[in-house]
Amino acid sequence: MASYVGAIDQGTTSTRFVIVDEAGSFVAMSQMEHEQIFPAPGWVEHSPNEIYANTQAVIASALAQASLGASDLAAVGITNQRETAVVWDRETGAPVANAIVWQDTRTSELARNLAKNPGVDAVRQMTGLPPATYFSGPKVRWLLDNHDGLAERARNGELAFGTMDSWLAFNLTGRHVTDVTNASRTLLMDIERCSWDPTLCEAVGVPMAMLPEIVPSIGAIAPCTGVLEGTTLTAILGDQHAALVGQAGFSPGDTKVTYGTGAFLVSNTGTTVVRSQAGLLTTVGYQIAGQPVTYALEGSVAIAGAGVQWLRDNLGLVSNAQEIEALAATVPDNGDVYFVPAFSGLFAPYWRDDARGVIVGLTRFANRGHIARAVLEATAYQTRDVIAAMERDTSRRLEEVRVDGGMVDNALLMQFQSDILDVDVVVPSVVETTVLGAAFGAGLACGMWGSLDEVAAHWREGKRYRPSMADVDREPLLTGWAKAIDRSMGWITR
Known about the structure:
Oligomer: single chain
Structural class: alpha+beta
Largest sheet: 7 strands, mixed
Strand content: 15-25%
Strand order of the largest sheet: 17-18-16-15-21-22-23
Shape: globular
Radius of gyration: 22 Å
Number of strands: 23
Number of helices: 15
């Protein structure tokens, strides 16, 4: 058997391909960014064709770096930005429009209608999710409603819908599939049966003829063609679920936070479907073929690293993302300045699409350093809100949180995260856990690794941040954050 697996990581801002060996080490990696398209306020789109072209390019580049061919890979996995929706022509394979990205808010009216009929409680009971602009099903409905002829073509079975995993799998294997993790983010799948629900599909307005086949996250899916001909697709995991696998979060209570464009916390709840009472999402953690589904609770924060990008690109306070830590360190604290990055509303645990971003607490004393620090601290506060909700839902106090993603390189943020949580924050030795999780899944399915225990043995602690803030200092900060959150709500009126 080949001693390498490959993994595609199709993210919100870029696509990359990595090659991983039996020791769980990266052998080669190639990455390309794609265009962020903003046609109107609150709208975010991607070009599916650009993303697929980039995927082909990074696969070829990484294979060339490693002096390998596709047939040298025992298997490949896909991990992806989850709720981004693509619709394409089944016969030609051509997209009918740009993909609507998970951050996009154009479906707010559709979400409000679902909240009325069948109702918030009914939707949550069936899907584990609240009606919200975040999820992909209503994005498809919007495309069908706003492009002439698409609704009829969809009903006739001429069009295919999928999230980015489906789009790539279709192009790389010819098969129209998605896995249980991505399907669980559509508002169309029954969370307990893990199958498309006709009632949900009718309520959202998505013909079932458009939908992909739901398959386990880890297991043989299809032989690859084209740039990957000679190997097999054996894993599909939404990005946050892949990070849970990459962090070896295989036991109930294991919890990880990924800091990327947004921040995403996932906590393994085992085979139990935990219904959140605190504003979190009930979701599928992963499924290995032939085994029961592993479930999870998730809290999603829309803006984390994207807040730093905004500080760089829109305000010009830093010239690159790495400068923000040094700028924030020029001041000893936030100077009572708080930043709520509700650019697309607030996600978990608030779910308020009427919120918008605010900077509050400004005085003549405030300077660039305070604003930079407030932007960083916003990520930690939002994460704390989600973890507090998770602890309420599970009645379990977390002893530590495993973290990954680009922002874990920021020591100031990680220490503040530990301080505001009052728990240890653990950074693994390999922080690219999302793409590593897709590789682990591919290797598990093809037998390169024989068990979850064998995969977990490859996880190593890199750095541990321990809380050093006194309660008397923490509480005023949390009070200030709560006031800032309150000020952000109700900005959009109807």
